[in-house]
Design goal:
Belongs to the SAT4 family. The protein is mainly α and 353 residues long. 70% of the residues lie in helices and 3% in strands. It has a two-stranded antiparallel ribbon. Strands 3-4 form a two-stranded antiparallel sheet.
């Protein structure tokens, strides 16, 4: 490459990755962005699921002393949870667009969007696997709690959803990897040769299926819960625990909205960041929802420990007697209401039968 071509390429690379709208100019030094807000959201939904998974693992390993497959799958989902970075594309130089599309950006220390933290491209690819792991864990938990030895419609509905999700998200995983030929073209705007499929349409379609699947999973156990031989207050409490994932559904629906905007806009960096911002609560809240059935047993155990360390021996004995009576009443209630309710109540207390 001669000097003239080299200078022309350098000039191109220093220019904006997208022509700014009429009346606006590119700002490479201090562009308007929502990076701080995005990082706050990321921090919150890093801490919440981490605490929830820790409580669930402590409950299963130290209190119940029984770890099941759904616990392992949920831990895998938490470890694979990924995220990404935020500004208008006309405020990004062409040479830095590759950095944005391939790596996740922290708050830039230089105008060139330096300080890459995690692979954004890898995060986008792993998204399908993380969502698959979360939904599989929740469905396996449903089977443990609500199914009986008879293996009725609910059991097979859960298994059908598990396998359908496996096919759907597995396909999305490979489609994300091989969306362009050569693969590098997916994040490098300087690759001229090759082809890419219309990932905008794919993202919208897959997000729509994802949202529908979320709502189906939330609604799936509700008929069983409300047919249990329990008072309405207890039914409402259990229903609320298993409905908590509705918040993740709302986040996924908002993410779908931004995927539609992304498919219709050339401002890739901005709408990818908006979409990603709602991915944090979507994944984080789904993980928390999967941990909620273990939390009552954990809180009950911690409460008993605190009380026993502060009161006299005689009062501890009274508290122990009262707890024994309550557990006996629970067992009688379980016998009266059948095996499905017994499984539910045991799991709600953190025990797995």
């Amino acid at each position: 490459m001669d000097t003239a071509d080299s200078m022309a390429l350098q000039t191109l690379l220093e220019g904006p990755a997208l022509k700014p709208p009429l009346g606006m100019t590119s700002n490479f030094i201090h562009p308007p962005n929502f990076m701080k807000a995005m990082l706050i959201v990321e921090l919150i939904f890093f801490l919440l699921p981490t605490v929830a998974v820790s409580i669930r693992l402590y409950t299963k390993t130290r209190i119940i002393r029984k770890v099941t497959l759904d616990d392992c799958v949920l831990v895998a989902a938490r470890l694979g949870d990924q995220a990404a970075g935020a500004r208008h594309q006309w405020d990004v130089r062409i040479k830095d667009l590759r950095t944005f599309l391939y790596v996740r950006i922290s708050i830039p220390k230089t105008p060139e969007l330096a300080n890459p933290i995690k692979d954004f491209r890898i995060g986008a690819i792993l998204y399908s696997l993380v969502v698959l792991a979360i939904k599989t864990s929740i469905l396996l938990q449903f089977i443990t709690i609500f199914s009986t030895a008879k293996r009725g419609k609910f059991f097979w509905a859960c298994h059908a959803l598990i396998w359908l999700n496996l096919v759907f998200y597995g396909s999305g995983f490979f489609l994300e990897i091989f969306s362009c030929q050569p693969i590098r073209k997916a994040w490098d705007p300087l690759v001229e040769n090759g082809t890419c499929i219309d990932m905008g349409s794919v993202l919208v379609a897959s997000a729509a299926v994802n949202v529908a699947s979320d709502f189906i999973i939330v609604l799936l156990p509700q008929p069983i819960i409300w047919r249990l031989h329990l008072d309405n207050r207890k039914k409402l409490e259990i229903s609320a625990v298993f409905s908590a994932a509705i918040l993740a559904c709302v986040s996924a629906a908002i993410g779908l909205y931004y995927r539609v905007l992304l498919a219709e806009s050339a401002d890739t960096t901005w709408y990818i960041s908006m979409m990603t911002t709602y991915t944090f609560p979507e994944l984080g809240l789904a993980i928390v929802a999967g941990c909620l059935p273990s939390i009552p047993k954990f809180l009950k155990t911690i409460k008993n420990i605190n009380v026993s360390s502060q009161i006299a021996t005689s009062l501890r004995g009274q508290a122990s007697s009262r707890n024994n009576r309550e557990e006996a009443e629970d067992r009688i209630s379980m016998v009266r209401t059948g095996s499905n309710q017994k499984a539910l109540l045991d799991s709600f207390d953190g025990r797995v039968v």
